[in-house]
Amino acid sequence: MSFESKPLSTLLCGAPVGPARTRRSFMALGALGAAAGGGLLAPLSAMAQFRVEVTGVGLTQIPFSIAPFRGAELASQNIPAIVRADLERSGQFRPIEAPPGVIDENARPDLAPWRDRSVDALLTGSISRLADGRFDVRFRLWDVVRAQDMGGLSFPVPASDLRLAAHRIADYVYERLIGDKGVFSTRIAYVSKDGNRFNLWVADADGENAQSALASPEPIISPVWSPNGSQLAYVSFEARKPVIYSHEIATGRRRLVATFRGSNSAPAWAPDGRQMVATLTLAGQSQIYALDPAGGQPRRLTQSSSIDTEPAYTADGQFIYFVSDRGGSPQVYRMPAAGGPAERVTFTGNYNISPAVSPDGRWLAYVTRVGSGYKLQVMELATGNTASVTDTTADESPSFAPNSRLIMYATRVSGRESLMTTTLDGRIKTRLASAPGNVREPDWGPFLSA
Amino acid sequence: MNHSKHLTGSPAASISSGRRWAQWLACATVAAALVGCGSSVKLDEVPVTDRSGTPVQPGGAGSGAGTGADSRGVAPVSVAPGQIGQPPASLSRTIYFDFDSFTVRPEFAATLEGHARFLNADRSRSVVLEGHTDERGGREYNLALGQKRAESVRRALSLLGVSDSQMEAVSFGKEKPANPGTTEEAFSQNRRVELSYR
Questions:
Q1: Which of B99, B133, B145, B147 is most worth mutating to test chain A (most A CB atoms within 10 A of its CB)?
Q2: Which residue, of A37, A398, B62, B79, has the greatest Cβ tally within 10 A?
Q3: What is this structure's pTM?
Q4: A263–B143: do the CB atoms touch at under 8 Å?
Q5: Where do the domains of chain A lie, and which CATH numbers do they carry?
Q6: Domains identified in chain B and CATH numbers
Q7: ipTM > 0.90?
Q8: What whole-number distance in Å separates Cα of residue B119 and Cα of residue B127?
Q9: Using CA atoms, how far apart are residues A376 and A274, in angstroms rounded to an integer?
Q10: What is the pLDDT of residues A2-55, one digit of tens each?
Q11: What distance in Å separates residue B176's CA from the closest CA in chain A?
Q12: d(Cα A313, Cα A269) in Å, to the nearest integer?
């Protein structure tokens, strides 16, 4: 999906403050306001239309304000509220209510009153109607402490993309002030079950704006985004046996990519977007095969007489992590992407499954069984050090955000299946409150090419 | 019915009696055949089945199958939809497994033999072996475990003579439990292979 954005010209002399210096200057102020440790539920934002359920706080919490946007009433989406909820949900920003009084992106506000309110970052902007019926969304970010213009963008968008424009603004603020690429404008996929009705949903990363890509009376499992974000592959039981579809989200067109004898499951895309691997049972036992994009005979990659399944590519396409019980119980292994000797990666516990590798290649998330519970683990691949990052005991199917900073997973909260995100250190967690009913099998989509 | 026995007697008897005697008997046979419907029993002595009136015998002619009394009755049989190509309903369709186990318990040997007999009797018959697990553990790994159970039943049937083209082993993992509960009892009902004749 192409999305235009144009930078606004700088209003003040001097370059905007770089992110690293900004972060340090905020840390001093942030520490005064930050709560110690986790477990603190942030208060429901009065202004936001969207429930923000976040527990825990970051080491720094940047106090920010969003001034009322000029023309906000023109848009069907409350853009400032979406931006505010996105930033608040990250646990790294603390919203401070702005007094009434519109400030648009062309104004040079007096920043002294904002400093008095202990605001470190101020967002201003406007929404106007274009001649062709689209909306022009504009904003500017101010470093209140240094009294500097941190730039802004303008987005001409149709009404259907207003929400996306808000997420793009939140990404911009996040990148300028935290230094990491934001994931607010990415999408997720997940499955819901309601009695005998199963749906495959595509939603914004905040869980809002969910649309059903597939409705089925039979189970759907293991959805995975294609590298360019236009397709989902998944396992469907609609034929009364598991088969793999590749499904183009925008058009609803789908094709069978694996319907071989026996069971077809655990699809994974190679980073080139064409090659796929999956677990097939052509040999009797579950083994990992490379599927031929032209539909020919699949090529067997694993060579064991045990169960080999759940393949996961590294982002550079060099390796595949997978689950094998060749050693007697399921553990995570790694092999070259073209197949070959596998090396074992997990050594703690006797049941380790569902590997997910961070796009930056530094981390491995997986699920381990402890007693009768299943718990999300994060391993630093360089050292092998592993940590448990949740308090729950029914964790499933971890998936990394494309900026490698967050993991989305399914679990049970108060007896109900829920989707959660966590930072890699487990410090900040959110629950996707908008995902209804019994939800499972999340997969985090890629960055959209701008 | 002695006369009819003569007529339907073994041709070998007439042959062994000599040619002239055989010819005479053959003529007599043909002559008798021309007289009536292959029987010299008088028509008014034939017990006609009359369902419109009071049955002469208790049970009536409709139960002739049990008594063997009436070879001209017709006992109705209807094929229920979905039962075409199915073994008898009395044969169990489900094999249960112990936790973490993929071997068929001896108590199911008779069930498997029954299915093997049905499949061996007609090579055009086919069965899908659907493997399942209980709900504990990951979805994809459980799909593979269910497959192992289905494969185990497939091998057992193969040893009993069923050919590969008649069977397909598939798995539902933990996605289609027979019992949605979370007790040990529920779990034991879910660890199974179902033999599905589609």
A1: B147
A2: A398
A3: 0.81
A4: yes
A5: 6-178 (3.40.50.10070), 187-444 (2.120.10.30)
A6: 2-49 (no CATH), 94-196 (3.30.1330.60)
A7: no
A8: 8
A9: 30
A10: 577 888 887 753 333 333 333 333 333 233 233 333 333 333 333 334 556 788
A11: 8
A12: 7
